[in-house]
Write a structure and sequence with these properties.
The protein has two helices and nine strands. The protein is mainly beta.
């Protein structure tokens, strides 16, 4: 296997990819909070499999200086975001003190409260806890457009 110079540890095919389906990750930071920023913070993040609410953008946090992290997991790169709270996720199995992607934290698998799809992990230390949720298991809530008309003039 040939490693590319730019990829540091992993070949380019396994490099960190930009997450395009979560718009809050792609917004440039602004100095002043405007109405759009405030509205974005209240956007709910749903389970991509069933649509159950999991958390909100406002719950995002930084761990070790970053909100988003990427780790190798079974020959793939897993991209996850850190959130202070995820009421739509429930813990399964026991808490593991073994290998952790976040040094000093134990972890527990988290699944969707409704459909039981794995969403990520909850990380716990003596002083802190947070949820590491895989971006591909989440989607943003899209506002319903009431009274929307179709091309032939009928309402949906």
């Amino acid at each position: 296997m040939v490693f590319e110079k730019d990829a540091r540890i992993y070949p380019k095919s396994r490099a960190y990819r930009k997450v395009e389906h979560l718009s809050y990750l792609n917004r440039p930071p602004s100095l002043f909070e405007d109405e759009e920023d405030a509205a974005m913070k209240h956007t709910r993040l749903l389970c991509a499999a069933c649509g159950h609410p999991v958390t909100k953008v406002a719950e995002k946090t930084e761990i070790f200086g970053r909100h988003d992290h990427a780790f190798p997991y079974y020959n793939q790169m897993v991209q996850l975001g850190c959130y202070r709270n995820a009421p739509g996720a429930i813990g399964v199995e026991r808490i593991s003190y073994g290998y952790s992607w976040f040094r000093g934290y134990a972890w527990q698998i988290q699944v969707c409260e409704k459909c039981y799809t794995q969403l990520g992990w909850k990380y716990l230390s003596q002083d802190d806890s947070f949820y590491g949720l895989v971006f591909n298991t989440l989607r943003e809530e899209t506002p319903e457009i009431e009274g929307r008309k179709t091309a032939d003039g009928d309402q949906d």
